[in-house]
Structure prediction request, 348 residues.
Amino acid sequence: MDWIRGNTVGRGSSATVSVATCCRSGNVFAAKSVEFSHSEMLQREQNILSTLSSPQIVKYMGYDITMESNKLMYNLMMEYAAAGTLHDAIRDQRGRIQESMIGQYTHQIVQGLEYLHSSGVVHCDIKCQNILITESGAKIADFGCAKWTSPDHPEASATMPIAGTPMFMAPEVARGEEQGSPADIWALGCTIIEMATGMSPWPNANNDPLSVLYKIAYSGELPNFPGFLSTKAKDFLSKCLQTDPKSRWTAKQLINHPFVQEFNLSQRQNQKSFTCSPTSILDHRAWTSTEESETLDNIFVTKSSSLSRRIGGLWLNSRAPNWKWEETWITIRENVEGVKQDKNVGGC
Ligand code: ADE
Prediction:
């Protein structure tokens, strides 16, 4: 099926997201694209996203391979969120979201996490930039770092590298020990701080990622809880931001925490008519797992490498990451780009 690529709405180190329109139906969707030769991460994302179906997860719509300007492109198609990301929402509200709204978004993210974790998936890169805002609420997106947790899953691998965004890494992840579902809960705590303050969970460390990773890994310190939040909100944060992953609450427990509990009923009412299922489950596994690689926004590191070697390697690498916490995806929604509207052959 033909589709037309429209404006670019987000750009990361590993892929570009454009609005796209299906020629036949006129339906609008989002196409996350990268040159085929660099598409391992995007294919990993497709592999996981294609199995998921939940109102709190961005809806998978298929994938295809196209030829554009003489380049072979890999495209992952998903629902388009016109309102953009939670990160955009913070910026639009001048850096701070009201607590009632934080509660509502948090509730939806926790529901998404509960679904993911009970499906045996860990996201590994929860942060405001990876949460999309849609008419039916917040949805978890960007599964480029995600992995299967169950060792029985055919795609699970004991050698999966540790991945994610340093500022949002849980202590056990920063130490390179493990990255299970509790790591997503720590990152959720960091995301709540980001919503409340419009700043990184470690605002004093923006220019020194090396020290923030050491601090997270070995100091036992927690990010500062915003003083203006209610007791309920701070208590919720304290359940997420436990240095010991075993002491952290699970998504299932958090759903019933008083900070988000009040949204349980209204959510069910809002979503009575919401149904979604993967458009297709595709068997495309041309990729091999990454041994050690890094991207501008988030890093992949092998479990076995020591923290200092890993960090040192990142600094020495000429593709040194941009550690500014807010710059993972350059959102260019307002600044409509004159992207060439190539006609592609693909599904929609
Ligand atoms: N940015 C990243 N993914 C997106 C999507 N599916 N819709 C809108 N903006 C996005």
